Amino acid sequence: MADEGQGREQARELTELLRASVAAARAGDHATSWRLTSEFGTRFWLADPADLPEDLPTAERTEFHVLRAAAADRMELHDDTVADVRAWRALAEDADDTPSAVLALSSLCLVAMVVECDDAVLTCGLAPTPALLTELAARLTDVGAGLTEDSPRHVRVCLSLAAMAGLTCATSTENAPKRGQFRALCARFTSPTVQPGDRVLTEAQQLHADGRTAEAVTLVTDHLATLDPAVTPTQVYEAHDVLGYLSLTAGETPEEMDTDGVLAHWRACAELALELGAPLEGMHRAEQVCQLLNADGDYDAAYDLARRYGKALDGAPVSPALLNLRAVRARSALGADLPYEAFALAASTADWSALTPDSERTLACLSIATMAAEEAGEAGTLGSSTGETVVSLLERAATLHLDRGERIPAAQVLRTAARERCSSGETSRAVELMERALRVLEDPATDAARSPDTDDDMLTWHLADWNEDMSAVWEMADRPDLAVAYAERAARYFRDARDHSGAALNWVSAAELYLDQGDGTACDRALDLAHVELLSVPGGEPDEPGATFDTGENAAWEGYHALRNLRQG
């Protein structure tokens, strides 16, 4: 009975939310609309429209799908977005609410744009943007034929928003013919009395697309100066959002972007959304701000913002956007010296992410979890099985690399796991992992395609590097006889890969191992071979005027001279 009563109460609260959302939309109260969208996504995501009251008006029943589509869009759940936009459109058409149906069609255009621009996965099937834009332009032209300032506000708002969405889509997809067509439709349907401020932001978007970015920045900056956050918070948000985008695209290359501008404007967006109680609206900007803060080493600020968003989003379903935010929070927790929390966040996020096509995020989370586990283990907060936990994470990463056809990264990860086991005295486990890494390196079938990082020279170099690691494993295991054999093999592979300093370093290592075993003759022979490799490196010897060397070459020369002097002394 308690569950049944609770269900009725939830249905009543959802019905009230839908009515409030319809009222907010009719009044142009965007702040309330944003807040209710987040409330729907965090409290009513699992609600079934079939459970809505039978006598619920069509407007409220349609609003269920409008809100669910908006929430799904913010969470990057593209299939859900399409499904609910289609349901919204169907209900609007059944109710002869043609303007709302046209607005729904424009939403499909935006979904198609995002999916195509981000190369996202969509399983439900959606027409390409050119086809959707053609249909939208035709519908706008037909429905707007008799539009006047005396037309109902609902009609004017729907057509204005639909025209702006079409222009955004045509601009972003660089569809010049459609861009011109939608510019004309926007000029016709978007009036300051219907969409205050939207005309300014649309004009700025077009100035930027025309290469007149400085004018766009001035236009939006001047517009922002006229706004009061307490009166029009959503317009302030949108102005900062556009200015952040303009800062992001300020230079010819990503390195030339105005990072400070991006951070300042999108940080303002993230904070405004939280103040409004609309975390779904700001979660993507919050994630991007946290990435920038992490890149600057400001982990405490990134962690604080991500933590506050995590709390505000409690109840939201697992989604790509939420996983991205959790991943960036895990990274900031690691930098903020919270290794156990970083491990818990990264490991659980990796588990969820593994169920999605985003292998990059999964690999990033496995990497964060690995580093956090090592730090948590050193701090004594992860228990006695830290070593195997780290190895397990690394093995998962290796498997994922192999699934992606990346044998060299897979082998490198397995070698990292081997070094961890070796440092813990688990020699047999380390050797097992090293042998797995070698099988991966030597199996060309694991390549998705021949590429610069898997050509013959690079593969030879990585085989050399593997032998160098194996030498270190046997040296740590107190098996100098095996260590020296792998060091010599590494030197020969490095020579074949034309890495003479790497070859010299390994001959010096072999010489030192021979000397420790009392084999002076073998030591001298290895030193002679090291000298040959060192002379093959352009630049001469370190004591020659003008000679320049990297760290590896200097180490090889220093090791060579130290051992040679010892032998001759």
From TrEMBL:
Protein name listed in UniProt: Uncharacterized protein
Domain of life of the native organism: Bacteria
Species of the source: Corynebacterium variabile
